[in-house]
Specification:
This protein has 599 residues and is an alpha+beta fold. Helices cover 37% and strands 23% of the residues.
């Protein structure tokens, strides 16, 4: 369950406990409430609101915590190994990967075309070998000092803890980031986790044992916690991945256990950890559900006697899944499981992790053709106007143009994906009691331009309905900003010219903007129409006096297809008629276009 209080998402975990507990957790300051099974949702929300000031203060602490920049693993970057600074030198080598420390330099040899993920994975494996070597040296020392011993241990990259201890199975985990800290920090974590085998909580008994075996442990703990952490990008884990992790982890774990059952038995091993690493290859083969691959890593440990402490390398699996699109992830199925490489890349995605469709610039014609094939195939065979309002009705949309909903005239339309109300303060945009499928258009906007703008606005909203509902359903399921799950508000000037800084909403607006002329003027039949009109107007491309006739042609073409003159002119140019490029004097386009960069 997830609450949103004052814009802050809060994860609620109901457990068999007596009292509620509120935590703001590292590394990004996400909020978690543990509540008794019998506690009702209203009481939990009230508890969250009464502690809101404390939550914001704790979140601020995490945001201010120093972190290193995101590494690209190129020459000149700095790295820390056992607390000492080294300078990275990257050397292109297609034959063999290597990681070598010489003086104060680290020489990393890999293929020039290797990705950042591949370089990071390789460097982490080198870190793992060095860290394991020190643990193998230091763990027996502290076991002898304390008289405590673990059954097994392993290393993994963690972002929330330096180490963990399973007291029941006597299993220890050590954070791979410890390789970057001084060796005494590793010793402190080893001692800390060993003492947990005797005392589970950080009480006075635990503190007394720490004082007994390591008198300066507080200073070392401060040094460890105050040191700069690795770069952490909260967006590295996509919203879909978070949802799968939160809601379907149990099914994924069970499927992995069944798949590996024979291998685990053969190797006399046990599965100690299963982690969802990525969700890739997201597609929508049919309307109503999506398919994707969940990439998981599996840590297997030997169940042999304690002295061996032998562990097998991580195994990576790809689970091909499908799920129905709705307010909940219903109909979840794991279709197939196969082994894959650790550096599994997303490949040619059809959707981003936020379920925004990936539509490259070169695919717009194909995208428009699929839309028309479904809703008005006649336009793909004959040069006819596309009845976009009839298409909207066929899609189940209701067009409402009589309501003036934006005092600032900064939005031309709002499309409701579910019943609800939109209300804003300064601009006084108010729409009450709207129903799903209602399309509100501000008639003042297109009346000030041309009637063609109205068709373009309807086509814009139709494309939102056709392709962008998965994103809004995902936002609704995650409880992130309720308005994103309810309605699409289309501003007059949307998006950013810089593709690197666009949000998912900016990309959807950019796609809807660009798709309008492709839908209203399909390439094949529109080209035939333009060629016919050029002959009818007797326009010679080399004749300067043809410009006035070209202006008349564009006006007629715009009227025929129900587009603005600027949109018709731009579409002619895209279809390979450069004769329009020198024609001037048209009203600026109804939509401010973004850059030509691809998503």
């Amino acid at each position: 369950m997830r609450l949103v209080v004052s814009g802050i998402p809060i994860e609620v975990q109901k457990k068999n406990i007596k009292n509620m507990h509120l935590q703001v957790k590292p590394p990004d300051g996400h909020v978690v409430i543990s509540a008794p099974l019998s506690m009702n949702d209203k009481a939990i929300e009230m508890y969250a609101r009464t502690n809101l000031s404390w939550v914001k203060k704790q979140m601020g602490r995490f945001q201010e915590q120093p972190r290193s920049a995101k590494r690209q693993y190129v020459s000149g970057e700095t790295m820390y190994i056992w607390g000492k600074q080294y300078f990275l030198t990257f050397i292109s080598d297609a034959q063999k990967n290597s990681f070598e420390i010489v003086g104060n330099k680290v020489f990393l040899r890999m293929r020039e075309e290797s990705s950042v993920k591949q370089r990071e994975s390789y460097v982490r494996e080198q870190y793992r070998m060095m860290l394991k070597g020190e643990i193998e040296r230091l763990l027996p020392k502290w076991e002898q000092i304390t008289g405590l011993s673990c059954e097994s241990w392993q290393t993994k990259y963690m972002v929330t803890r330096w180490g963990t201890c399973n007291t029941e199975k006597k299993r220890l985990w050590f954070n791979l980031q410890l390789i970057q800290k001084p060796v005494e920090c590793l010793e402190y974590v080893i001692l800390h986790e060993l003492i947990h085998l005797r005392e589970r909580t950080h009480n006075e008994v635990f503190t007394a044992y720490m004082d007994l075996y390591m008198q300066n442990w507080r200073e070392i703990r401060k040094q460890l916690n105050d040191s700069m952490l690795d770069f952490y990008d909260a967006q590295d884990e996509s919203p879909l991945q978070k949802l799968i992790d939160q809601g379907r982890y149990g099914e994924i774990r069970d499927a992995v256990l069944r798949y590996l059952e024979g291998e685990l038995k053969q190797k006399e091993a046990m599965l100690s950890d299963i982690k969802i690493r990525n969700v890739v290859h997201i597609e929508q083969p049919e309307e109503g559900y999506i398919c994707f691959d969940v990439i998981v890593s599996c840590d297997m440990e030997s169940s042999a006697s304690k002295p061996d402490r032998m562990s097998f390398p991580e195994k990576w699996l790809r689970l091909h899944c499908q799920v129905l699109l709705g307010i909940e992830l219903t109909g979840f199925q794991i279709v197939a499981i196969t082994e894959c490489g650790q550096t599994e890349e997303a490949g040619s995605e059809k959707f981003t992790g936020e379920l925004v469709p990936v539509i490259p610039e070169g695919s717009f014609e194909e995208e428009a053709a699929r839309f028309l094939e479904k809703y008005y195939p006649k336009a793909l065979e004959e040069a006819v106007p596309v009845p976009i309002r009839q298409i909207a009705e066929r899609m189940g949309l209701t067009i409402i143009e009589r309501e003036l909903f934006s005092d600032g005239l900064d939005a031309f339309g709002v499309l409701f994906l579910e019943d609800g109300t939109v209300q804003e303060g300064k601009k006084n945009m108010i729409i009450r009691n709207a129903r799903r499928g209602m399309m509100f258009l501000d008639p003042r906007y297109y009346c000030e331009r041309t009637l063609g703008n109205a068709n373009e606005m309807v086509a814009h909203e139709c494309f939102h309905w056709y392709r962008h509902q998965p994103y809004h359903l995902l936002m609704k399921m995650l409880g992130i900003r309720d308005d994103l799950g309810r309605a699409i508000r289309c501003p007059v000037d949307s998006g950013h010219s810089d593709a690197e800084t666009r949000s998912s909403f900016d990309w959807m607006e950019w796609q809807a903007n660009r798709m309008v002329p492709y839908i209203l003027m399909p390439a094949k039949t529109a080209t035939r129409k333009i060629e016919e009109m050029l002959r009818g107007y007797h326009i010679c491309l080399d004749d300067p006096e043809s410009q006035s006739r070209m202006e008349e042609l564009i006006s007629e073409l715009a009227k025929f297809y129900g587009l603005s003159k600027q949109a018709a002119k731009t579409r002619m140019s895209e279809l390979g008629f450069p004769c329009v490029d020198d024609v001037s004097g048209y009203v600026p386009g109804w939509r401010k276009d973004c850059s030509e960069a691809e998503l």
